[in-house]
């Protein structure tokens, strides 16, 4: 038996045929998309990893949206708003505004280099520019930490949802195994194209569910004012900075945004691979603008309204991650509420398939191919990806069963690791003075300090209400990157021309 609220389980059991109809309809579409993508899959690495660089801008945008939203956006973020208050929504929106601008800038540059030199992963670009297999291995370590963290959270949440949607016929542990098997079969058979096509459907489904949910909340509360009136005595604290608990000062808000948004939406290996997969460098202006629209709708109509009204309706819940599901059955009829749970499951599947695919692609290409087996050909790379994903799924299921955790802290920590790659990336695409020594030392120190301060191995020298440890670690990384670059030799002129010159001519 899972820890999912008993009242939801009872509603599911009493409306089982409707729940099965919603689940069955979703998986029928899932199988159709997988079959269509499998027919297009070529047995070579570029098609399997980056869909032959032929995805349209709308597909790229929605695969980014659906992959990142996941159980984090559908359950974890509303739960954090429930606990912290509206200042957390400000963190999300501030972070995504920065992300849109950053995507508009780095996206075309990453795409141009990927197209020119056949790069498929972050390690391809950074390892080649700095001429260092060690930097490739950094990207592999960041990929492992980031992707495993997300995979564990999603498998855990997916297992709980299948337990509830099955009326407790499927245990949460077995549910995690089922989700893992579904994802492995989908990724192995369809590659990135199948993931992206499914994400387009899932993204539209998720967005529609959140908008409908928000409208029904407004209706149930009697208008926008009614959503907030139920907060009672905590209304002022809940709606204003620094929020419940007093942590969310302006600087802390941007500190959290660094990890939660910038690290996840732009710098994660999955998003980097999607930048390679776009059909044209001109697409990134549209992708960036659409990102702002999609995230704005999702976080205002979904995260904000669910978190605020959830706090009004439920003064206490067993776990904040369940508040979005609890509230759904309060404000919606049973079938739309069931569809919302299926939308959460769709988000979980979109995230899990994305990060399993990304993890195996980066490990195989940037570690096995670059260090262990340099002579590996394209077909061997695809076969090894498919074999390794089974191991990744097994590890993910095992860790999910052993480590039940809240979703949002995991997401913030994962993004805090990948955001450390921003300095070497900007050096490779923008700043010709950047040195290999800086790219080796600064991100390593940033990652080490993130672990030390976020996991309380060492005290953060900056008070937490000013900056969280992850943000302090990032700024240390930036300082060291600049300092070491000025103290050491930059890349040779021919290497700068190979990267910066190409970008200048193409853009």
How many β-strand runs? Answer: 0
Helical content band: over 70%
- What would the CATH topology be? Sodium/glucose cotransporter
What would you report as the Rg, rounded to the nearest angstrom?
22 Å
Order of helices and strands: HHHHHHHHHHHHHHHHHHHHH
Number of domains: 1
**What integer is the average pLDDT?**
89
Using the 3D structure, state the CATH architecture: Up-down Bundle
Distance between the termini: 56 Å
- Estimate the global geometry from the Cα principal axes: globular
* Uncertain runs: none
- What's the CATH H-level superfamily name? Sodium/glucose cotransporter
In the CATH scheme, the class would be Mainly Alpha
Oligomer: single chain
Strand coverage percent: under 5%
Specify the number of helices.
21
| Structural class by SSE content | mainly alpha
Largest sheet: none
3D structure, described in words:
This protein is an all-alpha fold and 507 residues long. The protein has one domain (6-404): Sodium/glucose cotransporter, CATH 1.20.1730.10. Helix content is 79%, strand content 0%. The chain contains 21 helices and no strands. Helix 7 packs across helix 8. It is globular, with a radius of gyration of 22 Å. The mean pLDDT is 89.
